[in-house]
Structures are given as structure tokens and as C-alpha cells.
Specification:
heterodimer; A: 342 residues; mainly alpha; two-stranded antiparallel ribbon; 13 helices; 1% strand; B: 463 residues; two-stranded antiparallel sheet; 14 helices; 6 strands
């Protein structure tokens, strides 16, 4: 039961990463791939009517975290206090810039909100990258069972760490690059004309940057948390994830060569999903890893809700999930195809 | 001032009061949109479609503000109220997760289509989008109110060996009688807000002599819905809510009424007066004999225990504000019935669109339902004090221990600045849309590529 809920939580976070990932990436890049007002409208049209639906995956994952692992949720959220509020403010700025930007036809008004939108998306990609780095590296949980994270302390990865250190910073930069590459691949699929050409160019540059950076970050990870690799190697699901990521890489390369944009984009999604599966499987069962001493770490078993609560939630979760996909299909059908520049 | 709980409470109170200014209009306006879309579908009359189109623009801005200010709410359970979440997350997590899964996915998928997708979806599917958004927003309200009802009147839970709460019976928890009454009361109050806003804009257009047909529609539908909803807020829902408080939260009832002494029967209700907690009396009271016994228990002969019957440790922590917020809510609620009664009388005599003094009052009345709704929630939440979960957990035990006052004040200050800017933007843009009126050509373009993408889709042959 606890494995199942760990899996459900992981599934929701992976869905969020892939779906919002292309919105973050496309939003972060939009000043670079779109120069005129009409081109920027085209990018925003490509991000489309479902970005709020994508964002809900995080909110729903937050609720699921609470129902399944309340103790870990409370400890983590209170500990990440400042980081979470930074993320919340960025979310607010992004949402509001998308909504109000189109309400006045004034060019200065629109230019300002386009800039806010781009900055908020860059910030969100970095904050979520740093959060991922923190999950991998661990947090300073001590014998009280609590922790609190300052933005930075000594920039090392052991002991009383902060949110930012050399490792989490490199994961953050890596995440920004990867999501921008993902977003550029998405824009290649959804746009036409000059935006399409610029997105193609940016996608090539960014994927090369990812190809250079990823092995470095993987090496860093193996020195910070070697046990993740050992655990993942013993679990078949992780090999499946690796297979998906490699398949995705193949699809991305051949898709881009042959001009099959859908295949390339599917490959980009598969890479992110596959890598996160490997990571999630390797992390299990630890929810909060302690950088002070391993015995202070909080596992899924220690943080779980009562068996009765987990069982009850399992009755309503699957139908709710099916309904959620139903709404998405209804909308996605109405908005499929490329958007054009006017 | 070094008590972090105070800052946690201020931050939560500020962010929830501000947030709830938007959902109450969303939940009230949503059914106007559904009704107009439905009438347009049935009769094919353009005026209904036009009304829905105009209000959908305002709805969209309002909805976005609700989403943006609602984001921090769920997170604050963990960031600011960590001890509360550890203790009760196994219970309240159920409804908070359900809200995300059942209503947020529904609303977020359909709201863009509701606001921008009229051409693309066609009338039938566009009506369905409106219906979906309305259902989603009310479902969301239900899950939140069930969560709040658990804090007011905990049911369906059990105590685990490790000293935390777990869910024992999900249907008891979801069908908490307190929650059902509170939901009915709250949703009717949201409809009052929606009705007053629609009526106010109709009155503005009528006074200016613009868009006569639309003005008439807003005035008539707004006033009728406003009367029905205002009556339902007071009776039966408000009445039932008061009886639940009288039965389960006795010290709160006493504080709401500013009643310190116990009386065996014929207890009077206070209309106006100022509570003096130090002297334990009410200054300058104007009272109606016997009414409190009757309203709280249904008979003039029942007694009401005053605050003196309870130890001070069980008294609500802010008796004065609780007393005033309750009286502001109840007083305004009564005036709403009166005003909407007069408006409907004028409507019946065919003079609603021409009676200028009445139109002035209707135009300027729309802020008051916001005040009444806010006062009502302050009554509910202050009445629950000193408990975070009534009888089980006290408020001072619920805040995150690990978060320092300095960090909370940092985010509170940041939030205040952010919300100030958001408020300015909202007022500016809604005012802009509202004053331009329903006949203006919308210059707000769709962020979703309408109509270019529509023409692209048509070329491909997919409507």
C-alpha cells in the first residue's frame, strides 16, 4: 500500500514535470524565439488553454502528499518555507501576467507583461531544479525530526546545508537547460514560420548543452548520493525507466533528423519521464534524506497515513484521475494542430 | 510580539480573507453564465449570448485572481501550520486532495474554453463548459467547507496510537451535518454577491441610458436571484447554522451576542451595543426581549448560558471582533432582503429600470455582500477560537514550530505587497471592462490563438 502511494505521488510529480516543463521552457524562451508582438501571441497560443490544467498537477500532488504522507508533507513544507514561498510568488506572477497581458491593446503594457512572464518562467524552472537537487541531496534533518533550510549556508553538501550549494545549483542550471530544450521542441511542433525556425535552432543548441551537462551532473549525483544508483540497479522498474529514456533519446535524434516533429517531442517527453522514474525508484523508500546522519532520514513507512486512510483514498483516486484525463481530452481535441502567426 | 503563532494567524487570516473576495463572485456568477448560456441555447436569442459573453470576460479576470491567490492557501497548511497538518493531515488531507483531483482539474481544463472558446466550441459544448466550471467551483467550495466543518465540529475521525488523527468513517466526515448547513449558507451568500454585482452593473447602464436591453436583463435577473438568495441565506440556512452554534459551540454564541450573564429564559437579542469585556457587560444596548431564546433554540422559554458559565480558557480570544462581525453580517443580511424586496416590487410594477433613486442604491450596494461574507467567515473562525479543531487541538499548538517569526513576517510583508499590486490590477481591468459595457468590441484578445488558430483549423477541415 505504501509502495503504491509512493508510486502515485511519483506519477503525479512526473506528470507535472513533463507537462508544466514544456510550459516553463516555452515561456522562458519566448522572448528569444518571438520578437514581434504577433509572434509572442503565437507562443502564448501554443502554450494554450491547458497550462492551468498542467499546473493543477502540482496542487493535486500537494493534496496527495498530505493525504498519504502527512508527516513528511508538514516537515518538508515547513522546512522549505522560504523556497516554497519563492515558488508561490513566481507562480502568481506567471499566472497574472498571462491573464492581464491581453486585456489592454497597449504595446508597452504587453511588452511589460511578456517580460514578467519570461522572468517568472525562468525563476520557476530554476526553483524546481533546486528543489529536485534538494530532494536528491537531502535536508538537515536532525534528532528532533525537523529541519529548516536557509537559502544558503556554506555551499557544501554535508551537515547543515542550505537550499543552494554547488550541487543543487548545478541541478538547477541543468533543469533550466533541459526544460528549455523540452519547451523549444514543443514550440517546434506547435508553431509555424519564423517562430518555428528560431525554435528549431534553439532546440538544437539547448539539446547539445544538455548532452554536455548531463554526464557532469550525473557524476556529481553519484558522489553526493551513491546509494541511489545502487538501489536503482537492483530494481527492474528503474531499468524500464532507463530504457524509456534511451528510447526517447533515439526518437528525439531521428525525429529531428527526419523532420518528424511529433516523434521528436514524444522523445523529449520520454527522456524526462524515464530519467525521473530511475530517480524515483532509486530514492524509494526515503522521502526526506538527512544530510546529518542516515538514521534521521524519514522514510515513506514512517511518514505514511493510517492504513485505513490510504485504503479509503484509493477508492476515489482512480475515478477522479480518469475524469481529469477526460476533461483534458475534451479540450485538447478542440485545440489540436499548429497555431499560426497572424 | 515574539509569539510566532500571532504572525502565522495574521498571515493566514490576511491571505484567506483576500482570497475569498474572488471565489464568492466566481461561485455566484458561474450560475448566471450557465443560465444565460442555457437560455441562449433554448431560445436562440442573441441578448442571452451577449450577456454571457460580456460577463465571461469579467468572470475570467475574477477566476484568475481566485486561482492566483488560492495557490498559497493549500501550501500554508504545510508551511505555516505544520503541527496541525502532522496531527490531522490523515483526515483533512482527504478533502484537500479531493478538491485538487475532482474540482481543480475540471475547472482548469474548462475555464479557458468558457472564456475564449465560444466560436471554437459551438453553443452546445460551450454551454457544457460553463456548466462544468460552475460545478467545479461549487465542488471546490464543498471540499473546503467540509474541511472547515471538521475543524468546527469534528466527526468521522479516530485517534491513532502515535497521537495523531486518522480517518475512521469517510462518509461521516464528508456528510458532516455542520458542513452541509455551512455549505448551503455559504453558497447562498456567494449567490448574493453575484446577484448584487450583476444588478449593480445593470443599474449603472440604466442610469447612463446605455445598452438598455442588457441593462434590463441584468437588473431583472440580478434582482430576482438576489431576493431568493438573500432570503435563503437568512432562512433556513442561517437559522440552522445559528442553532448548530447554540448546540455545539455555546461559548461562541454567548460571545457573538456579547452575553456575559446566564439567563434561564426569555433571553433578549442585542441589536446594537458595544461589548466591554473588562467590565463584563454590554454598553449602550438596544435589545429585543426573548428573541435569542427563540432564534437559538426555537422556544422563548429556553435559557442561554453567558460567558461567565465557562472558564476563561475556553472563551473565544477576540470577543469584541467576534461580536461585531456577527452583528455586521446579520444586520447587512437583513438589509439585503429589504433592498431586494423593494427592487422586486418595482420590477413587478414595471418600474425597476426607471426608478432612479432605487437604481442609485442598487448600483452602490454591491460592496456590501463582500463585507457581509467576510464578516460571516470572521464570525465562524473567531467563534472557533481558542480551538483549531474544536475540543481537540488548540490554535497555539498548530503552527509550524520550526519557522521563525522573522521568516513569517518576511512572507507576510511580501504577500501584502504582491496583493496590493494584484488588487490595483484587478480593479483597473474589471473597471475598464465594466465601464466599456457589453456593447463594446472586446479588445482583449484571446491568449489561446483565437481566431487565427480557428482559421487554421478550418483549413484542415477540423471545426
Amino acid at each position: 500500500m505504501i509502495e503504491l502511494w509512493f508510486g502515485i505521488l511519483g506519477f503525479m510529480l512526473i506528470m507535472f514535470s513533463v507537462l508544466e516543463g514544456w510550459d516553463f521552457g516555452a515561456g522562458a524562451l519566448h522572448l528569444l524565439v518571438a520578437k514581434t508582438s504577433a509572434e509572442r501571441r503565437q507562443v502564448i497560443a501554443a502554450i494554450g488553454p491547458l497550462w492551468t490544467w498542467h499546473e493543477v498537477w502540482l496542487l493535486a500532488a500537494g493534496g496527495t502528499f498530505m493525504v498519504a504522507f502527512p508527516k513528511a508533507m508538514a516537515t518538508a513544507f515547513a522546512g522549505y518555507y522560504l523556497a516554497l514561498w519563492l515558488a508561490l510568488w513566481s507562480f502568481m506572477l506567471r499566472g497574472i501576467s498571462l491573464e492581464v497581458g491581453g486585456h489592454l491593446p497597449d504595446p508597452l503594457w504587453q511588452a511589460f507583461w511578456d517580460l514578467v512572464f519570461a522572468v517568472a518562467n525562468v525563476l520557476l524552472a530554476i526553483v524546481f531544479g533546486a528543489a529536485l537537487g534538494n530532494v536528491i541531496r537531502g535536508v538537515p534533518l536532525d534528532e528532533t525530526g525537523e529541519f529548516t533550510l536557509a537559502f544558503f549556508t556554506h555551499f557544501g553538501v554535508r551537515g547543515r546545508v542550505g537550499i543552494l550549494d554547488w550541487y543543487t545549483l548545478s541541478v538547477a542550471v541543468m533543469t533550466l537547460l533541459l526544460l528549455c530544450a523540452h519547451g523549444a521542441t514543443y514550440l517546434t511542433l506547435k508553431t509555424q514560420g519564423t517562430v518555428h525556425e528560431r525554435s528549431m535552432r534553439w532546440a538544437r543548441r539547448l539539446w547539445w548543452a544538455v548532452a554536455v551537462g548531463f554526464p557532469i551532473v550525473t557524476l556529481e549525483t553519484s558522489s553526493v548520493r551513491p546509494e541511489i544508483f545502487r538501489a536503482a540497479a537492483e530494481r527492474p522498474l528503474a531499468w524500464l525507466g532507463l530504457l524509456a529514456a534511451l528510447g526517447g533519446l533515439g526518437a528525439l535524434i531521428t525525429g529531428r533528423r527526419l523532420g518528424r516533429e511529433q516523434r521528436a517531442f514524444a522523445g523529449s517527453c520520454a527522456i524526462i519521464v524515464g530519467l525521473l522514474i530511475v530517480l524515483g525508484v532509486g530514492l524509494f523508500p526515503v522521502l526526506l534524506h538527512s544530510t546529518i546522519a542516515p538514521e534521521f532520514s524519514m522514510t515513506a513507512q514512517q511518514a505514511a497515513s493510517s492504513p485505513r486512510g490510504l485504503q479509503l483514498a484509493l477508492y476515489w483516486w482512480p475515478p477522479a484521475m480518469l475524469l481529469a484525463f477526460g476533461y483534458m481530452m475534451f479540450i485538447a481535441r478542440q485545440f489540436r494542430g499548429k497555431v499560426r502567426s497572424s | 510580539m515574539y509569539d510566532p503563532t500571532l504572525w502565522h494567524r495574521l498571515q493566514f487570516a490576511f491571505s484567506i480573507v483576500y482570497h475569498y473576495l474572488f471565489p464568492q463572485l466566481t461561485m455566484g456568477l458561474a450560475w448566471f453564465l450557465v443560465f444565460w448560456k442555457w437560455r441562449a441555447l433554448r431560445t436562440g436569442e442573441e441578448r442571452y449570448a451577449k450577456a454571457a459573453r460580456f460577463w465571461a470576460r469579467i468572470f475570467g479576470l475574477n477566476f484568475a485572481m481566485g486561482v492566483v491567490t488560492g495557490l498559497p492557501m493549500e501550501f500554508q497548511f504545510g508551511t505555516n501550520w505544520g503541527e496541525f497538518t502532522k496531527f490531522s493531515g490523515g483526515v483533512i488531507g482527504q478533502t484537500l486532495a479531493m478538491e485538487g483531483m475532482f474540482s481543480f482539474f475540471l475547472e482548469s481544463a474548462l475555464v479557458g474554453a468558457l472564456i475564449w472558446g465560444e466560436q471554437r466550441l459551438g453553443p452546445r459544448r460551450h454551454f457544457l463548459a460553463a456548466l462544468g466550471v460552475a460545478i467545479g467551483s461549487w465542488l471546490s467550495g464543498y471540499f473546503i467547507i467540509v474541511t472547515n466543518a471538521f475543524m468546527q465540529h469534528p466527526v468521522g475521525h479516530g485517534m491513532s496510537e502515535d497521537g495523531t488523527l486518522h480517518i475512521a468513517d469517510l462518509s461521516d466526515y464528508l456528510l458532516n451535518p455542520w458542513g452541509l448547513v455551512q455549505f448551503a449558507h455559504n453558497q447562498m451568500a456567494a449567490l448574493v454577491t453575484g446577484s448584487f454585482v450583476v444588478t449593480a452593473l445593470g443599474a449603472y447602464l440604466a442610469l447612463r441610458g446605455r445598452s438598455a436591453e442588457q441593462a434590463k436583463l441584468y437588473l431583472r435577473h440580478g434582482a430576482l436571484a438576489g431576493l431568493v438568495a438573500s432570503v435563503l441565506v437568512a432562512f433556513p440556512t442561517g437559522d440552522l447554522q445559528a442553532k448548530l452554534v447554540a448546540k455545539h459551540q455555546e461559548p461562541s454564541l454567548a460571545a457573538m451576542e456579547g452575553r456575559f450573564q446566564t439567563l434561564p429564559s426569555m433571553v433578549e437579542i442585542t441589536l446594537i451595543g458595544q461589548p466591554n469585556v473588562r467590565e463584563r457587560r454590554l454598553d449602550n444596548p438596544i435589545k429585543v426581549p426573548g428573541m435569542l431564546s427563540f432564534l437559538a433554540f426555537g422556544t422563548f422559554h429556553s435559557g442561554v448560558r453567558g460567558l461567565e458559565a465557562f472558564p476563561e480558557s475556553e472563551w473565544p480570544t477576540n470577543i469584541e471582533l467576534l461580536y461585531y462581525s456577527f452583528h455586521v453580517m446579520a444586520g447587512l443580511g437583513t438589509l439585503f432582503i429589504l433592498l431586494m424586496g423593494i427592487a422586486n416590487l418595482a420590477r413587478w410594477r414595471g418600474r425597476l429600470e426607471t426608478t432612479r433613486p432605487l437604481l442609485w442604491v442598487l448600483m452602490l450596494a454591491f460592496p456590501f455582500p463582500y463585507i457581509a461574507n467576510t464578516a460571516g467567515w470572521i464570525t465562524a473562525e473567531l467563534g472557533r477560537q481558542p480551538w483549531l479543531i474544536w475540543g481537540i487541538m488548540r490554535t497555539e499548538d498548530g503552527a509550524s514550530k520550526i519557522v521563525s517569526s522573522g521568516n513569517v513576517l518576511f512572507t507576510l510583508v511580501g504577500l501584502t505587497g504582491m496583493y496590493f499590486v494584484l488588487g490595483l490590477l484587478y480593479l483597473f481591468l474589471v473597471g475598464h471592462e465594466a465601464l466599456r459595457g457589453p456593447d463594446a468590441v472586446p479588445h482583449s484578445h484571446s491568449p489561446y490563438g483565437e481566431p487565427e488558430a480557428l482559421s487554421a483549423a478550418k483549413e484542415k477541415g477540423t471545426p
